[in-house]
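Re-run requested by the PI after the first attempt was lost when the workstation crashed. Everything re-entered from the original request form. Ligand of interest: fructose -6-phosphate.
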Amino acid sequence: MCGIVAVVGMPGAVGIVLEGLRSLEYRGYDSAGIAWPEDGSFALYRAAGRVADLDKLLADGPGDGREAAIGHTRWATHGPPVEKNAHPQLSHDGVISVVHNGIIDNFATLRDDLVRDGIEFHSDTDTEIVACLIAREYAKPETAGDLVAAVEATVNRLEGTFALAIMAADQPGLVVAARRGSPLAVGLGAGFGMVASDAVPIIPHTRRVVFLDDDQVAVITSGSCEIRKDSRPVDYACTEITWSAEAAQKDGYDHFMRKEIYEQPTVLENMFRNRLRLPPAVDADPEFVMDGIDLPDDYFKGISRIVMLAQGTAYHACMVGRNILERTTKIPSYPEYAADFRYRDPILDPSVLVIAVTQSGETMDTLHAVRLAREAGCKVIAVANVVGSSITREAAGVFYLNCGPEIGVASTKAFTAMIAGLYFLALRMGQIRESIDRSELRRRVHDLLGIGHRLQAVLATDNHIRKLAKKYMNAANFLFLGRGTGWPLAMEGALKMKEVSYIHAEGYDAAEMKHGPIALIDENMPVLVIALKGRRYDKLLGNIQEIKARKGKVIAIASHDDTEIGKLVDDVIPIYAESGIMNSICCAVPLQLLSYHVAVFRGCDVDKPKNLAKSVTVE
Ligand code: F6R
């Protein structure tokens, strides 16, 4: 995520950029910065924290009277959210200023190249590398002063994802922008130009917007805009924006929750694309990019037990993680509610690996449980979304989910990303410990790389799920059942239903039915059963028959090629997934959509359910 704003040819440019950054804070808000050309170099202001913290630095008006500026609000990926890592990043010679959204995969190689030229760095960011590379090109005799050529030469060397806006100190009337994989919009006004991560900061000034395509470069001055590809100008179409700024923040979705549900294919695909390499030779081992968690292999040896600490949705991800970790690493693994763990006098020793799983990184109980584990000498790592958050600072290494901010209070994209993150760690540990067969490891990595398409196929059932939501929206209660990894999914489905639609819901292991919950079944009780083909399928069919015999209404999440189950149940949601982990991730999506639509039909405040907060920083 991260938000970019740059303007040229606009009196009051500094104020306009700051206002644009505030409107982009929904994309990230851990640090912010702004720069403008001044006397052949850059005036640069950056602050850890929100745009409001940057405002304070500019309160005495140092930027008054500028016509061009470049700014950024950050969601950290490389390096903690401190001032030196905030953007804009300047080049070693101070001539180039860059703001960036995305991750440069080959930044280590590019950095080594710059180090050989004696260039020193002042931040931990991949963005500073980009600024220095552009500056080096900009200084070459053959391209001297040609910012466009310098940018084009540089982006051709970048691997990964980026949206970039760039200025040169000696050309205050020019902004160059480039994108691959991260969004970027150009606003065209009368006598001014803008670049931003989306149309939100542009709309108050002009409604004429060009959305850049991958590998395009935009050259923007106060009176012109050229779009280029492969170093040549190309034709482009201008869109007349009719939506409000609020609608634009939600990318056209009615709610952040729905937007975040729909982000899942991209979040997971990017996670694996950035972290997994599968060499083409059939007998070659997959390579794991342990960015953030690059601990020595020995760290993952000699482990007697794995304990996963979490609360709420994150705990459900840990329950799925238990199955994955045990099968792959052969180490006994236990999900634990952090709140219970910390007050239970748990038996711990240095051979225990603790994995804290958390979106916010601030959940009070998880934080204190982690501290307890550290005091007992355990190894502690984290799976987290918010870079630099309290829990990440306690851990020896962090697997960052890189989902971008999750604004809907109900966790959606972070849940599937947590499962994926635990799976990644399990596979890597299995590889280190040689507890997984090499060809099996290759097969699983291959599967993971195809996750985006499978999730898109699940999202294609959204209309069908909406109709089911309408059918069941007036239920007073809901039961969710599953077995194996379907059990935590059932618990998560029930939690989502409760928190956004306020319908009472319970999630159970289907094997528990006969031990109590079956007493609740009657014609008024909808029961969602996760009934994918697999080891426990026949048992699940047995459970379904028991429910039908008591007149319960059954909705089954079933394998897309299951032609029989429709005869048994009232409604079917097909899932296009085959292997175990894919099933868990793919199943989460219809559960999220069902709760979402039920909540919308019932008129609930989906993004801010009553009585809930996004991070629970109290006990
Ligand atoms: C439910 C939800 C909560 C969180 C829980 C832990 O949708 O969001 O149950 O999962 O409060 O929060 P994190 O992951 O921030 O530690």
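Saved to the shared folder this time. The longest strand covers residues 96-104.
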